[in-house]
Design a protein that fits this description.
By secondary structure, the protein is mostly helical. Helices cover 54% and strands 7% of the residues. It has helices at residues 13-37, 69-92, 102-135, 139-146, 148-180, 185-189; strands at residues 39-46, 49-56. Strand 1 (39-46) and strand 2 (49-56) form a beta hairpin. Residues 203-241 are annotated as: Disordered.
Length: 241
Amino acid sequence: MARGYPGQKNPFGPIYMIGGLLTAGCSIAILVIVNAYLWYTSYYYGGGFAVYSNACYMQTPDSQDSVNICYYSWAAAGLGIFFSLWLVFMQLCSGRHRHIPVCEVMVCVLALLWWIGCSITAMIYGQNADDYGNSSVSGYAQVLKDKEGWRTSVWALGWAQVGLWAICAAATLKDCASNRGKPPPEAAMGAYPPGAYAQPVYQEPPPYYAAPPPQQYNDAPPQYPPAGAPTGYPPAPAGYP
């Protein structure tokens, strides 16, 4: 890919590109599932005003007053898409001349830690909702039981992202290890060889006023020959006035 010096291909570039695209797809899938199947909004008119009611089926009803896991999932997926696009953009940026992929290491490690925390949170709240749906006979519990598969899909996609980012992070560390002991390509070129391309020694010429006068500069100008002296020209024709 483009990361590296001009003419230097990055063997880990395809791994970064595929990993970035797959993780972006998982994040988009989480957004769609939560919005379409695990988030419920309703409203009714009472006293001349519209009263809205929201419900997140990723958690138990008693935990919705302290935290909203649907909002948390949207934020997690949104930041996950940012990490994925960041990794893909760095492979497409032709102006980056990096000998060691520090940026790739940073984004992969940050994304890995982020998705570990998000997956653990979604799994804990999702399993609590599963237990509530299986242990109660209320109408809300029945809805939670029907949504159990979608909740499992969300945190399963989160752990899939953990695996993908772990692979990308391992690739970045391997990339660093393989490039750390290598000198940059400019160092292998060496100095320019002497010879025809050697730079000549520059000598500044003396200023004009310091140069000596030319030879015979003060000599008298030559005298013209006297009148009537032979000059080597042919004589004038006869009869010429």
